[in-house]
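Structure tokens please, single chain.
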Amino acid sequence: MKSKRIILVALLILIGVSLSAASTGGMDFASVWTESSFWAYIILGYLIIAIVLGFVKFKKLFLDEKIDTRNFYLKLQGYVKSENYNEAIKISEAFKKTTLGFIFWSGLKVFVEQKNSGVQGKELKRSVQRAFDEASLQTMPKIETGLFWFEIIANISTLTGLLGTIYGLILAFGSLEGKVGTAQQEALTGGIKAAMGTTGMGLIVAIPTTLIQGSMRNRAEKIMNDIDEYSVKMINKINANIKE
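Here you go.
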């Protein structure tokens, strides 16, 4: 629940920044945006990608994978223990959209098919193990898919902001040529303000994106740990019913 809140807050920050044009603490984001030229549009692109990817991964990890793994396993183990495999398959199929549900459904289905075809003993146990392994290999990589992009976006946003600052400073000092006194000071102040603004914009995108990435990875690791734990338990429970 804590990770979910962090992600939602971070996404709201990203969206708020993308819509904000108000003055805060003496910094006018609207003027910084205007003066940052094409650098602002590049960073905006990173912002849009982070927001879209954030909602996609949030849906996958917190909505599509929403399942009480412990109760799910306990419910199935009762049917497996009593050898009511068809009911166990039926329940697993109802949760087939989740990774753990699909793995259990695949493993139990193969077990029943092999058992009904006359396979017994160690060969049946190997079939069960292979079924669970294949289902895991098919689905588990999708849990972490795309998470590395958050880190890349955060790093590139920061570096792009710094590059924009350097570029802006070069232009600012170049604009001093032919100016004297107050005009020179105003040109330098405006140029430095616009240049430093790009670094600020980059960090505003990078910080919430980093928070999202950490929370998403924490959620993904919990899902995979639960899958590993309860898959082993289910395999052992099935194997206990297989006679040598």
